[in-house]
Every structure is written in C-alpha cells, then in structure tokens.
Amino acid sequence: MANNSIECPVDFVLINGNKARITAGSVFVLMVIFLFTNFLAIPIFLLIDFFVRGFKLGKYSPLNFLSDKLIAIFSIQPKLTDQAPKRFAAKIGFLFSFVIMLFLVFQLPVVSLIAALVMATFALLESFVGFCAGCHVYSFYSKLIKKKSDLYSA
C-alpha cells in the first residue's frame, strides 16, 4: 500500500501563522500587479524578501514588517505554527522569483508569466485557505531523494 501522506519539514520553532498568511497575501497582490505590468522591480523585490525570510533573516523582510503592522492595526490574534514549512516555502519563492527575473532578462515573458502565475496561485492558496503548497513540494522532494537513495544502496 502506497504512503500518500504529506510530510512537512519541522524544526519545532513556532511562529505566527496568521502573519505568514498575511505575508503570502502581500506576495499574491504583488504577483497580480506583476502579471498586469511585467514590472521587473517586483520579482527583484520578492527575490530579496524571500531570501531574507528563507535564510533566517526574517526580521529584515519588508513584507514581514508590513504584516506586523497589519496585525497590530486589525488586532489579529496569533495562530502558532511551525516555521520550517514557511521557511522552505520562502526558499521556493526565492527560486521562483529568480526564474521569473531570469526569463524577463532573457526576453522570455511568456515563461516568466507562467512562473508568476504559479507563484501567485501558491500565495493565494496559502493566504486565503491555509494550503501549504511547500509541504506538497517538500513531500515530493523527500520521496524522490529516498527513492534515489534506495536505488544506490541496493
């Protein structure tokens, strides 16, 4: 019987999940603006922001700062969640931002827009329904690595 369960990375450090969802909402809004404008500064900004959030420098993230302000203004109560899936998703967002930027620079706007649409969809799902696409990507990656490891150890 196949194991189809989703595996998420965990590090047992808790963060405010509502803050992560608001930040994802900001990413979604930025990606929608990008989809209509093709403005190169947006993926560059997101590349930097995802980098600082994905590589333990989240206190320098402008989107985290914005999320903190929105939480304070609207008195949103925290909902604790493990930070590892969010950090992994930020690393995936960093890669997507890099790909979007790269394809724009090499004048392949259709491919760039497809990657932006995927990223916008993931951000929308995280922000509005709490669906962590990063957990699904991580599960796929973990299973792929395990199969590759099993292949070489046999």
Descriptive notes:
Helix 1 crosses helix 3 (62-74). This protein has 6 helices and 2 strands; from the N terminus they run E-H-H-H-E-H-H-H. It has helices at 17-37, 41-54, 62-74, 84-105, 109-129, 133-153, and strands spanning 14-16, 80-82. The mean pLDDT is 87. The protein has a two-stranded antiparallel ribbon. It has 154 residues and is mainly alpha-helical. The two termini are 21 Å apart. It is globular.
Outline the secondary-structure elements.
Elements lengths: L13 E3 H21 L3 H14 L7 H13 L5 E3 L1 H22 L3 H21 L3 H21 L1
Antiparallel strand pairs: 1-2
Helix pairs in contact: 1-3, 1-5, 2-4, 4-5, 4-6
Briefly say what this structure is.
With 154 residues, this protein is mainly alpha-helical. It has helices spanning 17-37, 41-54, 62-74, 84-105, 109-129, 133-153, and strands at 14-16, 80-82. Strands 1-2 form a two-stranded antiparallel sheet.
Q: How is the biggest beta sheet arranged?
A: 2 strands, antiparallel
What class do helices, strands and sheet pairing give? mainly alpha
Strand order within the widest beta sheet: 1-2
Average pLDDT score: 87
Number of DSSP helical runs: 6
Beta-strand percentage? Answer: under 5%
Helix content: over 70%
Shape: globular
Order of helices and strands: EHHHEHHH
Poorly predicted tracts of residues: none
Rg from alpha-carbon coordinates:
17 Å
Please count the beta strands (DSSP E, at least 2 residues each): 2
Instruction: Report how far apart the termini are.
Output: 21 Å
